[in-house]
Design goal:
The complex is a heterodimer of chains A (360) and B (271). By secondary structure, chain A is an alpha+beta fold. Chain A is built from 8 helices and 20 strands. The relative contact order of chain A is 0.12. The chains are: A alpha+beta (360), B mainly alpha (271).
Chain lengths: 360, 271
């Protein structure tokens, strides 16, 4: 397997004064399901369009399987794209849509028929050959878009928020299906999304983008457990931020003085050696415990529940304590939410669950 | 409320009467068995139509108008298509100014346009005839064609063109296989309306035709002789029917695929 199948070398794309993509370099492995994740306007779609050839970079170069594709037009690149709105040709039927990209590949008629048949069965659209785009549901259009791109057997499949327009249930289904499909055919997928849950659940690796730069690139697990900065920590899941100053380093641990809470010895995941540098401590809501009574955990704060929201599988609490203005925590479905009297509660935190984040 | 609706209805009827009664006189008198336009009607006849068709000069004028109309509509639609695409697809500096510049022939009094073309054409040493008429009509039809095509192309999903490029088609292949079939209803509507505008046009033709009369010029020439009036009426009636048909067809085509049901396709063509 080629570890640098796609090489992105110092790519920038400026639109006027806006740096949509700002000096980005990374590599994507062959056969990988790679996601570009970020809020709208972070440059993820621009980066995908640079890979597809719809935009040309202001500077930098792109290599695909060792070949420089930086200046190639889209029709000369071994990539295919699934568009956000699917872009199914409305004037031709499903079969003609899927055949569209085969004309220039120099295939015989029999090969074309076989390929179209195979890919339609792959995306479970047999029997829909004669339909037009206007006669298809959102999910079916998505499958046509997928079939139309895959039938060309591209080296890389680019997907631009393909699940965004589907309702939640269908989206969850398609996530699983896309993942299975990708494993089955082994084509490299580059997937753009703003939905962190989607990126985490499907990808081998995720690049979190913000303001044209990559904030962190790692496996979904690593991204959640070990975010490198506030942006990533905040964007991936939900978390509580506590201001702190570092004190003495102690082997793998470091003493930090958390605002209003005092000094604690926690794991030095950032490898900070400086004394008195400002850091942020992050505590995930699900690592905390909320109860009616005091616990013997490392930190236990008395607080008042300001607001609750029932989410079905759990309940989310917004709690105010004397020390910290707002804490978000969750309880499991087994917990009786009615047991808090006048909103009085205790929040417990284990030091193991506190991680340090860089300030910027 | 009932009262108000009635007022509106009466107003609407009066408005339509004002619009169409004068026009309706033409077909009515064209079937009247008399040489002058006055009531009471003196009998039904199709004689005027036979008489009209027997005129060889009319055939010549009709042919001239068709030639001018076909060329003017094709050229102005082609120019307008590329311009409309640029306006709808891209944002560029001077967009509003160039849009205005293209629309100006629309607003300049036709007679001024006609005189200007006449002066330039003659000072260049060319002869009057159907060529300057055609050029004038192209100038005059292009803004109409632009309006129709911009309406069609605006809201066009340009990711369809990107999808085509992505699927291995070059720019021309994309235009031929994706853009053209989807613009086609608009293009045909533009061709038809431009043709009609050119076909009915009088002022430019009056100044620029020289001896090759177009159909409106022929009609005008005939009007001077009272005995020729009835067959001009017949011709006028035919033109009204023909024009109405073409305009309705053009509007139907223009709205095709943009109707309430929001069917997303233009014209289905099979390769």
């Amino acid at each position: 397997m080629n570890n640098s199948f796609i090489q992105i070398n110092g790519i920038s794309k400026h639109f006027g004064n806006v740096k949509a993509v700002d000096d980005v370099s990374f590599e994507i492995k062959e056969g990988e399901f790679f996601s570009l994740l970020g809020p709208s306007g972070c440059g993820k779609t621009t980066l995908l369009r640079l890979l597809a050839g719809f935009e040309y970079p202001t500077s930098g170069s792109l290599l695909l399987d060792g070949i420089d594709i930086t200046a190639l037009p889209p029709d000369k690149r071994p990539t295919n794209m699934v568009f956000q709105n699917y872009a199914i040709f409305p004037h031709i039927n499903v079969e003609k849509n899927v055949q569209f990209g085969l004309r220039k590949l120099g295939l015989t008629n029999d090969e074309i028929i076989k390929r179209v048949k195979d890919v339609l069965s792959l995306v479970k659209l047999e029997g829909y050959e004669e339909r037009y785009s206007s006669q298809l549901s959102g999910g079916q259009r998505q499958r046509v878009a997928l079939a139309r791109a895959l039938v060309r057997q591209p080296k890389v499949l680019l997907l631009d928020e393909p699940l965004g327009a589907l309702d939640k249930k269908l989206r969850d289904e398609m996530q699983l299906e896309l993942r299975t499909l990708q494993k089955e055919i082994g084509i490299t997928f580059v997937f753009v999304t703003h939905d962190q849950q989607e990126a985490i659940s499907m990808s081998d690796r995720v690049a979190v983008m913000s303001e044209g730069k990559i904030q962190q690139m790692s496996s979904p697990n690593e991204l959640y457990k070990n975010p490198q900065n506030i942006f990533v920590s905040d964007f991936i899941g939900e978390t509580n931020f506590l201001k702190a100053n570092t004190e003495l380093k102690d082997g793998e641990y470091i003493n930090v003085n958390i605002e209003n809470l005092g000094s604690f010895k926690i794991k030095n995941n950032l490898n900070i050696s400086e004394n008195a540098s400002e850091v942020i401590c992050s505590v995930r809501p699900e690592t905390m415990m909320i109860d009616t009574e005091k616990s013997d955990w490392d930190i236990c704060l008395e607080g008042k529940i300001k607001q609750t929201s029932y989410l079905g599988e759990m309940t989310k609490f917004y709690v105010e304590t004397k020390e910290i203005e707002k804490i978000i925590t969750v309880s499991s479905q087994y917990f009786d939410n009615q047991s808090f009297q006048d909103g009085k509660c205790f929040i417990s935190i284990n030091l193991n669950d506190i991680s340090l984040l860089n300030k910027k | 409320m009932e009262q108000k609706n009635n007022t509106l209805l009466i107003y609407t009827l009066l408005y339509f009467a004002f619009l169409y009664i004068p026009v309706l006189f033409l077909p009515i008198f064209s079937f009247n068995d008399a040489n002058y336009m006055s009531f009471p009607l003196s009998g039904f006849t199709t004689e005027h139509y036979e008489e009209m068709w027997a005129k060889t000069n009319l055939h010549k004028a009709l042919w001239a108008s068709i030639k001018v109309g076909v060329v003017a509509s094709i050229v102005s639609t082609t120019i307008a298509l590329f311009a409309a695409k640029a306006f709808a697809r891209y944002k560029f500096r001077g967009q509003n100014i160039s849009y205005g510049a293209i629309m100006i022939p629309f607003l300049i009094p036709e007679i001024i346009l006609a005189v200007a073309i006449l002066v330039i054409w003659l000072s260049l040493g060319f002869k009057l005839g159907l060529v300057p008429v055609t050029l004038g009509h192209i100038l005059f039809c292009t803004p109409f064609a632009m309006l129709i095509l911009i309406a069609r192309i605006e809201g066009f999903d340009f990711s369809l063109e990107e999808a085509s490029r992505d699927l291995g088609e070059n720019a021309w292949g994309t235009f031929y296989r994706v853009s053209l079939p989807l613009y086609l209803p608009g293009i045909i509507a533009s061709l038809l309306l431009s043709f009609i505008i050119s076909f009915d046009e009088f002022v430019l033709a009056f100044f620029l035709t020289g001896s090759d009369a177009t159909l409106p010029m022929y009609m005008w020439a005939q009007m001077r002789f009272i005995q020729k009036l009835p067959h001009v009426l017949a011709l006028g009636a035919v033109i009204i029917v023909f024009t109405t048909f073409i305009v309705l067809l053009a509007f139907w085509l223009r709205n095709l695929g943009q109707g309430k049901e929001k069917a997303e396709f233009g014209i289905k063509i099979h390769e």
